[in-house]
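Blinded run. Sample ID left blank on purpose so nobody reads anything into the name before looking at the predicted structure. Input follows.
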Amino acid sequence: MFEEAATLSIGELKRYRAWVSHIEILAGCINTSKAFPSALSDRSHDPFLNLRTATQWMTSIGYQTFLLNSNSGGADAVDPASATMDQIDRYRTEILGPMYRDHPFFDVDSLEEWINPGTFGVFLRCYAQESGVDTLQTHDSESAVPTSPASSFCDLNSTAGSRGSLVPASRPASSMSIHSTSSFYDGNYKSRPQSSLSMAPSESFDPDIAKISEPDEVSVTSKRSGQFKGKSRVEGVRITSHQSVNHLVPISVLPRTWDIPNPPKSTAYLFHAVTEADRALLKNEDGTLKPLGPLIRKEDQDSWDTKSGGHASATGDVSVSQLLPHSEETVRCRRITMHCNGLDMCSRLDPSLLSDDYRRFSADPSESHALWAPQMQANANEASSYMAGVARCYRHAIESKCKISCDGNPKLIKFSGGRTIKGHTHFIGCSKFQSTERNQHRYYMLPDNVEFELIKHALENDGQLPNVTVVNNLCSFTSNPRFGTKTCGSSFFSSAIFRIEVLAVYSHIINGTIFRSPMVRRKCDAKMIILVPTTDEQRKHPEAQLGYKAIIYFLSPHNHPAWPVSKMGSSEKQRLSAAINTIGVRGLTASKLLKSNVLTDAFGTAALGESSTALLNMRNVRHEIKSYKKQEFRYGTGWEGGQTFKLAPFYPEATCRAIILDGEAAQALGLGEFLKTYNVPSISGIDSCDPIELLSYCLKTCVVHFDRHAKELAAKDVPRHVIDRIREFPYLDSQMKIDEWISEMPDLVEPFPAANNWLKHKLNNRWIFPSLNQVLSWISFEDYKTIPNHSNLAESSHAARNAETEIHVGLLDAILDAQARDNIHAANLCQMELSGVLHKRGNDTYHREVNSVQRAMWQKRVTDERNMHIQDFQSLQNELEEGKSENNASLERSKGIKAEIQQCNKLLQEDRRSEHVSHRLKQLRAEEKAEMETRRAWKIRRAEIDANLQELRAGPLACKQIPARSKTSTPALAICESPSQPSTSGMHAAIDLAPSANGSNSEGREGLSEFSLPPKPPASFSNNVHLKNQWADPTQAKDQWQSNPWSGIGFGDSNDHQWDESVWMEDADVSVGAFERPNYVIENTPLPNTSNYPPFYSTGEMPLPTADPNSEFPEYSAEEWEMFLSNIPAHLEATEYSAGRDSTEFLGDGLTLPPPVLNVEPPVLIAEPPVLNVEHEISGSHGGTHISTVVETNEHPLRCSSRTRKTRRRSKDNVIGETTGKRPRKE
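Blinded prediction complete.
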């Protein structure tokens, strides 16, 4: 029995069976590469050579004859009919196993059916019956081959007393060591057939370096006694003084996976890039040569550790022969020793996947796939297991780390707001969390598909689950050491937020406990020696081209299967680079490149995975594109790269003259906010900070969109003549015609609600008309006329692109094209399954969950940082305005001090002995000096503020919209109109705490801050008072206040003095954005009715008015008033409470509270208000109370128009029809 057959791979067994089971007759000549007929591989045939019983039908002699016959080519064919009976019996005994020697199929009468003449000739050449002493030729020279079939008979059981030199105990000989040899003859490399019976190399210590022996110098003799008795003596190829090999194999291209000869030290490789194409792969882009040592390591798929670091080893450089043709002179070379890093595998790896005695000499795809396929199945099992999802959640929470140095533990923390939209009440945070270290600690939201109780139990019991569960007791995960995997299937990247480094893809739950399975290193004994000529030697022998040469040999095989070809080689990179240069990197993506015909032509197939499996990994393609983009665009292609975008109105040297939009309010207002920070007055000469005014310098609205929306009014019963009049506006060429159009339109559109709402929308958005008409625009006449009036040039590019790519094709053509693409995709999928190189490496269930969590955490962090920067920016702006006001006040005080000093000086001239005047003069000069010091300090501080603001604008807040800043201050009084005869059925109070839209001081209401509350209110209050009825004219408001100060009370921003009457227009359609005042909800806008509970104000002991119409309004002190306002929440959820509900269900039967005991004159309120609008309307009858509340906050979720956050207009002077002319730009 041939016991060694059990150690052969399935591929080797199949090749041998195919050799002994096929015979073909082609053109009258017998194909001698096969031994027996094909029927032997047919399961229905008798006999059938089953792979499971290979040890019974294989023999050592037969297998070695197979190795020899693979390269014979039929030159030794002998007709079996010319042989003797003893030769036939000997052949059948030596080639067939004991099970089939006496089988009827192999009868002598049917020789032509089962004997192959080529195989029989090789057998007779090596085994001679007449000779008692057999001779074995290690080189197949003509002089060594017997001339007669019966001239010799050699025993092939062993070459040196054991079979290990032929086939190792666990693996077959590699194809390279079996099928390829070479000899160095007359300076030329010639490939010659190799016998698998080459002896182990003789490690000669002779100081003389051996050269290649002649063919007749090397021979091995043995006696046929079952085993060789004596040692063979081989004069091989001397590489160094301590290393010789039998064969030196020339190669011109570096392999992707090296085949290790069997035995390893029997053969060395001489790498020599001969052609220009091969040499181009060894050069950098600047033409310099790449170092061969690192290049060989980089090309190989195995992970190698260079002990010498690419330099000479500890034993120094060595002298190497065989590098100079036609010369016995040696060359000094650097000796680079590389050790294989082996394989990283899960500590719970299934032992059946990889045995301890495994050896690899050559890459076998079937063995690699056998190790890779179980991982594919494990991915599917991981996604379909619920408990695996629980384990992933637990591992993610445990192994995530805080961004800062922290020894805290993961902890379940309850949301302060109660329950989230998804129903979560807790999240996983850090036990050492502090409010001052926001976003610095771990934060993990529980997945929706994981039960809270399971995670809670696991966190409280160190990963122990309530039920005994076993998931993935045995694992299949292995990893190339170059990935640096730490735990089973760990992520190949680290989180930039919470530094998540080691997280498991395949979950392991052993006996109900979530198990962290570390990766263990399977050490490999494979060792590769690279001999590279030194630089001095390359200069010394320029004609030998030593820079393109190296000698490589191995000392031991690998103990793990070959890795998938996932790294791109020099050849693939070269072709990929050529395709990128042809297409160009502008707008190039990996998907576009892989689908391009240029790349298909470069690799010769549309299914690129068949030509190079490395292209199946998108990461390789993206990396190459990114490197080329970095060369062409040094600063990147994002907003941070290139030069500053410049507009001609703000940078005179710019060539971009304007921006054309389609009338979208959000786009226009966002551009206006950007222009506030973009404008530099010292460069542009534009001092305005109003975003609406800045838009008029560079914005044009597409007249095609304007005309299209105007035509749509016809479907809403607007007559044709009204639509035509509307469409005339962009073409009005004088201010008089525009004024006429403005005055005519309100009466023209009034009978038609749709047209009326359209006009109100345009009047409220005062940037629209200047962007449509050149007369109102601040763009220069020449620029306005040369800039297109529409955006169709950009939008028509879609049709041009469709025409270029031939999208408009017939139905059958489209189906056939789709079929071709599907076939290519299917071929790539099959190649991925076979090679193990996936489109995306981290695309399993775990990595998708991790990426989702990281995106959420990143978004939260960015939002928090942005809000923090905006808060800093607004506080600096507030400080800047307060400082400016204080500085101006200081200047005014200094003027008064100087005037008083002048008066004192005059008095001293009249009476120099006046001590009072002298003392006063000293005080004034000290005050003047103090004011100067104050202004000097403010000047320094202002420079710091300006620098900080500029840094925020150019850095974290670049291209960011900054909302209107809020001010926390004391409320000022606003005036509300009330009926002339107030009713006594209820009470109304309005509190306006909303900020000014632009935060600037305006004219018209300064006098209101001088008024104070009267000592006593009337006995009853006005009813049905609405904010929309407030006086727009401050003069009328002041007169109304003086005549009836208690007709209505409102608290508004003292800076909010300009009013826009259009905001209060009645009967407007909210859907078209007629009322787009920010932070304001008009009366007929529906508000969310999420709960029916009134807002809670913690007023302490603050007394409230009763519902009794005869009760008096109490008087409050300044302290009481401040206490009341301070207890009103600054931000409230917008909620509407429907009237008609009985308030007793939450207020009780009585609403009367004890009156205050304080009777102090109310203070004069002159400060600015905080941000809140609260309107209460209470009416009582027969003990029942009905409450209606509308709350408005600075961040209200509902807007009158979701398309924009328009800046509030407050002055009739802003109406376009009243514009008299343009303000000249400052030079």
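Unblinding after everyone has recorded impressions. Residues 659-799 form one domain.
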